[in-house]
Amino acid sequence: MKRKYLAKDKLYALKKDFPSEMDFDDTLEKPTLIILKQQVFVEIMHTLKIRYKFDMLSNITAVDYDDHFEVVYDLANRTNNEELMVKIALAKTDPNIPTLTKLWPEADFQEREQYDLMGINFLGHPNLQRILLPDDFIGHPLQKSYKQVEKGGISEK
Amino acid sequence: MEIVDLVPEVLKNNVMITTIDGLFKWARSNSLWPLTSGLSCCAIEMMCAAAARFDLARFGYEVFRPSPRQADLFIVAGTLTWKMAPPLKRLYEQMPEPKYVIAMGSCANAGGPFADAYSVVPGIDKIIPVDVFIPGCPPRPEALIYGMLQLKEKIRHPEIVQRTAK
Ligand code: SF4
């Protein structure tokens, strides 16, 4: 069965609980849930998992904007075939966000990938190491400010 | 007296005289055992070269070995990343001497389309010594076979390589 985006009335219901902490653009057909306050990030994600039955975290990615980082989560509900995109902005100077590995174990490798390539720090992650690049790589290559240190980012051996 | 003169007249047409070195070169160059190893798209062409249409077996090179300890030819077919470089070097070191390396495709030659990427080794000769470079993205199976025949020449006549290197 084809997945459909989470219905807007459910988003309105969620906004009742978190009136100032989250937002979405209801003129859009498939509005992204934007989390405005980091303190409630885990709480909102927990609510989505328990009350809205989003039992799968299918994707984590990150974007490097001029003045902030944005982490993007794609959630899926495999019982009702619903999906939802959640975004949260992080300051360039402080790219820290709590890990979701306790809610969704599948977040493990995906958070490591975002740490490796984008330098997002997932606080509380059980094993936050590089996953795609060699352990001695210098820098986070998907950041726009990244400059190759040497060929391959690796010092001559 | 030449050693040839020791051969009895009746055997002259049936016996060939050579050196041990020459015999080894002849044997080695006619039966290279490549390591079953592919890194990316070029490996598909390598598999094609070994399959029925191009039939590498015609040249005696079809015995792809799953273990580096049984192989004497390393065809590096594909893109080498810095992450993969240490395992690749270890595989090379596990192969017994004498051993030969073919860099197949632009990626293995010089990084190919990813030459400036942060994650790709710009040419496997940064990691291990290479005997034959085959250009192309990917090289056709005929090109791989031609490269292997060039390697055969190199094994039989190492002096031709030394001469051009000067
Ligand atoms: S040279 Fe071309 S075909 Fe070969 S591995 Fe590189 S990109 Fe793929």
TrEMBL record, chain A:
GO terms for molecular function: NADH dehydrogenase (ubiquinone) activity; oxidoreductase activity, acting on NAD(P)H. This is NAD(P)H dehydrogenase subunit J. Belongs to the complex I 30 kDa subunit family. The keyword Membrane does not apply. InterPro entries: NADH_DH_suC, NADH_quin_OxRdtase_su_C/D-like, NADH_UbQ_OxRdtase_30kDa_su. Gene3D superfamilies: NADH:ubiquinone oxidoreductase, 30kDa subunit. NCBIfam families: NuoC_fam. Keywords: Transport. Pfam families: Complex1_30kDa (PF00329). The keyword Transport applies. Residues 37-148 form the NADH:ubiquinone oxidoreductase 30kDa subunit domain.
UniProtKB/TrEMBL annotation, chain B:
It is an enzyme of class 7 (translocase). It is found in: Cell membrane. Its EC number is 7.1.1.-. GO terms for biological process: aerobic respiration; electron transport coupled proton transport. Its main location: membrane. [4Fe-4S] cluster binds at C41, C42, C107, C137. It comes from the Bacteria. Transmembrane segments: none annotated. NDH-1 is composed of 14 different subunits. Subunits NuoB, C, D, E, F, and G constitute the peripheral sector of the complex. NCBIfam families: nuoB_fam, PRK06411.1. This is NADH-quinone oxidoreductase subunit B. The gene is nuoB.
